[in-house]
Design a protein that fits this description.
By secondary structure, the chain is an alpha+beta fold. Helices cover about 30% and strands about 25% of the residues. Strand 1 and strand 2 form a beta hairpin.
């Protein structure tokens, strides 16, 4: 006997119960994940991870370094891999690795952030209570390797992400 698919017709009880059980199972898993730090609804784990990573970075005492950064956003230089040179804690040069062209820092200072600038951006995002946020940090130096954030759910073009790599201390 097949189920009546007419709008408003009663649905079979077994199907309804199966859907409710599946929903309860998914919500239960989400609750378990929240307890394990996989899902962090209040953001406290995010801030703890940020503080620990930032401390690793500070302990490394790198003020002269080169690295590569790629910002993922609806913005100028979004998606481009930028080679960044930092001396004395300040960005002194940046180059688009694909074109080889220098980036004029006076015009586009946000295109080539220092690692400390990345930490500050993450802190600002977390203070705003993002709808979605994920971050991974380098286990040795602490710098943000990958960050993805969506400040406002269902807003257009407000997402921001970054990928950082190849941090190299300069003498």
């Amino acid at each position: 006997m097949s189920a009546d698919t007419t709008p408003g017709a009663p649905r079979p009880v077994a199907g309804h119960l199966a859907r409710r059980a599946a929903r309860a199972f998914v919500l239960g898993l989400a609750g378990l994940w929240a307890g394990c730090g996989i899902v962090d609804s209040d953001g406290s784990g995010w801030e703890k991870d940020l503080a620990e990573a930032r401390q690793l970075w500070r302990d490394a005492s790198l003020t002269d370094y080169d690295y590569r950064v790629r910002q993922l956003c609806f913005c100028g230089f979004g998606g481009a891999v930028i080679a960044v040179e930092v001396r004395g804690g300040e960005v002194v040069a940046a180059t688009d690795t694909q074109s080889g062209e220098a980036i004029p820092l006076s015009q586009f200072p946000w295109a080539a952030p220092s690692v400390e600038d990345l930490f500050q951006r993450i802190e600002d995002i977390l203070e705003g209570g993002p709808a979605e946020f994920t971050a991974t940090y380098d286990p040795l130096l602490g710098y943000p390797r990958s960050v993805s954030s969506d400040p406002i759910a269902n807003a257009i073009d407000d997402e921001w992400g970054v990928e950082a790599s190849d941090v190299e201390a300069m003498a």
